[in-house]
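Customer ticket, subject: "Can you confirm the structure for Integral membrane protein?"

Message body: Hello, I'm evaluating your service for our small team and ran a test protein. I'd like someone to confirm that this is what the system normally returns, since I don't have a reference to compare against.
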Amino acid sequence: MHHHSEKRSFLSSPPKTPQTDGDDDDDDDSGDGSGDEQQGRKGRRTWQWWPTWHELTTHYFREIGFLACLSQFAGATVFWISAFAGLSPILNALSTPAANGVFWLPQVVGGTGFIVSGGLFMLEVQPSWHRPAPRVLGWHIGLWNLVGVLGFAVGEGGEGVEYASTLATFIGSWAFLIGSVIQWYESLEKYPAVLRKSTSTIPHVDV
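Agent reply: Thanks for trying us out. I re-ran your input and got the following:
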């Protein structure tokens, strides 16, 4: 069953189907109560923004996909400062040291987060760290997002430096667009589904 049919479970797992033959819905509630606090009393885990510290240290910090998303989130958050400071009324009123601090520096820090994220997304699907996986869609998503973070140029180079910086931004924007289209295709191709236990007691017989 496609998960979109679950109208009432947008931020939580779908409700459990009725169990048969005395199955208990609250199997996870037995014990000393020191288990997963987010496990609902009806046997379902609700969606949450932040996992517990125990889950972070024992699972998520060891998962390369989570680290890649965390790096991208941090990079985008810092990059927002540069986008805001880049507005013409603000940028034109800044001195050179101030522009370096609130415009160029956040671009470098935020772009570094994107670079780390793209690299980790590529490593996540590679068979080993030194072997690329060009036949995997997820690898190309990380690659194009990595290409999108091209360097900037600023200084006394005149029109040539300004042209190179503008060209890098133009190419990087197209690379981000290509990566987004591939990611869109990949997400639609996976056909997410909700798996439920069958309540039927009839044994399966191969014919």
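A couple of notes from the result: Residues 18-41 have pLDDT under 50 and may be disordered. The two ends are 25 Å apart (CA to CA). Feel free to reply with more questions.
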